[in-house]
Amino acid sequence: MMKNNTMSFFFIFLLLVLVSWPFITAAETEQQKQQFAVESGKVLELDESNFDAAISNFDYILVEFYAPWCGHCKRLAPQLDKAALILADLKQPISIAKIDADKYKRVGSKYGIAGYPTLKIFMHGVPTEYYGPRKADLLVRFLKKFVAPDVAILNSDSAISEFVEAAGTSFPIFIGFGLNESAISHFAVKYKKRAWFSVAKDFSDKTMEFYDFDKVPALVARHPNYDEQSIFYGPFEEKIVEDYIKQSLLPLTLPITEETLRLLKDDERKVILTILEDESDDRSKKLVKLLKAAASANRDFVFVFVGFKQWQGFAESFDVSKKTELPKMVVWDGDEEYFSVVGSDSIEDEDQGSQITHFIQGYKDGNIIQKRISSGSFMGFINSMIGMGTVTIIVFVVAVVMIIQSLKEEPLTVGTRDEGDHPSSSTSQAEARQPLRTGEKQDKED
């Protein structure tokens, strides 16, 4: 009898625990939320004890992994403070937090932190590397994209205008006019980090005229930053739609910059690179217009251009010097190899459109010479980006690290597509005396 009573008591106790457990867990979660809510609008300071709770309690949270000695981190701090105030007031708020990854190495190691500052956006607990701008106003606009619906439903002309205005210029914009959202919803999720997606259910003839399409359904791709637009009328088969979206994520032509190099690493197409003397002069601008026409007819390539005057170090990587006759075209794999087309070493002033067509056809026909990026020009490329003083410090710090840790570091390859942001040291002596710490990441501000 006593044994039966004991068993009954045990089962009743277990039942009470199971019933009350969700309420206990909910109370703990609510307590954690209240703890973080007190700091709403401020950059939260996290540590190992509350890091996991923070990323699980917020749907969207930007985390800075920093080191107290990092100069770039110190310069970034006021920008994050300004952004936190704005992001906290959004309809779908985004929180900003930071953690000393140099002190809390377990957390830093878990998320593969290799330099400071590193920014990651956690969306429903899932981390994604943040490569966007770091000035407060641009950072806010960039982050707002992550909390937007995968596909915005637009039911009027005014809704379309408001959507485009809110989207800004940092990303391409896709608008499906008269298109069912199911036709692009899968791709909207897949490419959410790189573009805005929407479908317009109701619109006027005036809107059709403004966006320059004459029938529906139509998928319009816009690049506000480059004042470019293209229109796709179908067929709306999955593979064909995805090919159009992938090819429209970049504008028809774009200049080589630090930002576009990061964009190119995410594109699988070969790069047709045109090296100009000076990308800002009228002669070059005329050629760029011809390149846009060629790009429109050859969407299986990415067309980019660079001025020898603007980025001499980069141009020299392709065996170009002051004595080289420019403009010159090559096909680049985005990594360490490129191809010259036989008989198309340079572009003459006359009939340039035909010469561009001849170059592309020559490549497709296999009339090419395969070459490798000139490693001797690497220092010139780095020099054009960040200056000789910083290069000297980078070389010094890397040498010290190699000696102390006996590690073999690979140098940065020009435009390597599987590279992310690259760490570099600060210019202060205090930071240069930290040989066992991973170097700082350079800010790439838009």
UniProtKB/TrEMBL annotation:
GO CC annotations on file: endoplasmic reticulum
Ranges for domain Thioredoxin: 15-148
Transmembrane regions listed in the UniProt entry: 378-404
Domain of life: Eukaryota
Residues covered by region (Disordered): 412-446
InterPro entries given in the database record: Thioredoxin-like_sf, Thioredoxin_CS, Thioredoxin_domain
A Gene Ontology biological process term: response to endoplasmic reticulum stress
A Pfam family per the record: Thioredoxin
Keyword set, alphabetical order: Disulfide bond, Membrane, Redox-active center, Signal, Transmembrane, Transmembrane helix
Keyword Metal-binding among UniProt keywords: no
GO MF, one example: protein disulfide isomerase activity
Signal peptide: 1-26
Listed CDD domains: PDI_a_family
Biased composition regions of type Basic and acidic residues, renumbered to the chain: 412-422
Family per record: Belongs to the protein disulfide isomerase family.
Protein name: Thioredoxin domain-containing protein
Species name: Solanum bulbocastanum
